[in-house]
Structure formats: C-alpha cells, structure tokens
Amino acid sequence: MMNNKVIDFMGVRHITSGISIFLVVASLISIFTLGIKGGLDFTGGTQLEFLSDKPISIPKVRAVLDEEHLKSPTAVLFGSDLDVMIRTQDQMKTKGQEFINKKLTDGQIVEVRRPKQGLIGFSEVLVIANSSIDKIQSSGVFAHDFGHTTYEEENKNVLVAIENPLDSIYVDYLIQKIETATDTKIELRSSEFVGPQIGDELRDKGGLGLLAAFFVVFLYVAVQFQWKFSAGAIIALVHDVTITLGCFSIFQWDFDLTVLAALLALIGYSINDTIVIYDRIRENFRVLRKMASLEVINISITQTLGRSIMTSMTVFLVLVVLYLFGGELLNGFSKALLIGVIVGTYSSIYIAANITVALGITKEDLMPKVVENSEADTLP
Prior knowledge:
Layout: H1 13-33, H2 40-43, E1 45-52, H3 58-67, E2 74-78, E3 80-88, H4 92-103, E4 108-113, E5 124-129, H5 133-139, E6 149-154, E7 157-162, H6 166-182, E8 186-194, H7 196-224, H8 227-250, H9 257-287, H10 293-325, H11 331-358, H12 363-366, H13 375-378
Antiparallel strand pairs: 1-3, 1-8, 2-3, 4-5, 5-7, 6-7
Helix pairs in contact: 1-8, 3-6, 4-6, 7-8, 7-9, 8-9, 8-11, 9-10, 9-11, 10-11
C-alpha cells in the first residue's frame, strides 16, 4: 500500500472545515428561525382506520384530503389493499366546527361548550354569534347528521345543543366524500386522537436518547482510543445530526418518530465508519513512526477509502429503494438516512480525522504505556 498513491485529504482540511462550519451555522439559523415542523407524533392530531368493500385508490383518497386542506395528511394501505390509515395533524372537532361555519349563511360558531345540567343525551353546545334561532332553523344546517338538537338564546347569541359530537360529524362527512371519490363503501374501524402532551413527552425522551447516545459514544472512543479521538468523533456526530435537522427545517419536512429513529441509526452508522478510520490511524501511528501526523492520517484514510465508499454506496442504494417504494410512513426515515449517510461519510474523513489533527494528535498519544515494576524489570 505504501507504494500506491496516497490522497492528500488533510491538504484541503481548511476548505472542508469552512464548508462544514457554513452548513452547520446555516442549519442552526434555520432551526432557530423557521423551527422544525413536528409530525403527528409530536404535535398531536388524528388517526383514522377504515375498511373498504373493494380495493381503494390511495391517490384519490389523498386528493380528498388535500381538497379538505388537512394539515400534513398521509393516507396509506396497511394489512391489505382494503385497509386504509389516514393521519393528520388536525383535530376532527376543529374541522367539524369549520365545516359547520361554511354551511351557516348567518352567524359563526365562536365557542363550543359542554352541556349543562338538564341536557342529558347531548354531547356539545355550540355558541353561534350574530344570528337568531329562526335564521338557523330556516337554513336547515342542523337538520341532518347532528341527532337531536335544541335551541336557546343567550345574550344575543344562539346556543345549539347537538346530540352527535363535532368530531364524529366531520369524520362521517369525510368518509362520505372519500366513498364518492373512490366509488367504494367504507366501514370506520377506529378514530384516535393523539394529544400534544404525549408529543411533548416523546420529544423530551427522544432528545434524552440522542444525548445518551452521544455520551456513550464519547466514553467508548475515549476508552478504546484516546480523548482526542473521542472529541473528534462527537463533533462529527453533532455535525451530522445538525445538518440533517437543518435540511428538515429548511424544507419544512415533517419530523416524527421515524425521523428520530433515523437520527439514532445515523449515529450508529457514522460512528462505525469513524471507528474503522481511527483504528487504521492508530495502527499506522505505531508502525510509521518516522512520518508526520498528517502523512500518517492521509495514508490511513486512503487505505480505508475503498471500504468506506463501498459500505456507504450499499446503504445508500438500499435507502433509495426504501424512499421510492417504502410509502409515506417511511418517507421521513429514508430521507433522514439518505442525507445522514452522505454527510456521515464526509464527516468521518474530513471532520473526525481533522479534529484529531487540530487537537495535536501525535504518535506518543497512541504508544502502548509501559507498565512499571513488571516481571521484565526484575530479570537480571
């Protein structure tokens, strides 16, 4: 290998450092200004599961969801081509209120209350401003799908008590619209609401998981190699995660639990590539004792370059297939890892190794320590 051409990776380390600093700063600016668009797992929302009487067209279902202006909607098949799951960040009760407001020709719903005592069997009370009982009744808005209704006037507002809750009214309306668009009959299997409190808990635990992963990696590399290598590995991982998050912030892609899982997988993938390079650097420092640190690092990276490229390309091709055919639920996961594999391969060479150079790594740092008072010292 010594007779082969050695690539001068460290010769352009100042340029690559500038590129990395620019990308990290741009990512941080985007994260703190635009923020990260949380998915359903973190913001709360609704998940619907239903069964159709014949194979259903998912593109037509998605067209209905877009027409209804639902927030970050996804529609996927699961189990069979008859089972459909819809996820959206919208609350069905809020969409139900918007649905009624569109139908009201006079007045608008300004509040939704719980029924007071004496209204047994009613689920909600709608407070409609700028209207009257006669106008509401004559419009026929509450003539269908709302169950029993009762009307009352209060301080120039009209109180409409309805038997069926707003969320079920809107879900029924949405299913009817999907049935018409897809020419199918649909049976609703479940309708679940994910509260934002659960999302906050998942976000906090996910953040702790990332920090724990960084800490464990730091300890492992410090024990197996040396603290300068450990610092380089951690800075490279922070670099990878920050740029990946920056892409999600800049393009406002949904960040959900699958993306969080991708970030944790990225940490494992990136540190694996870094460890391979570090191990070769350590071996060469002990063998090539007369060479300068930059030369040893260039030789080590050159020797492992083929393995790094082949490993990254294999993973990259699998992720491309996953992105193209994995469906909407795995879209964020595959995008995060596609970005992470590219950035991680780059950082293992130009960030992790570069940091060790900046910290002044020398062959003395990696020489085996001589054990004092060993048996060899007692020999004549």
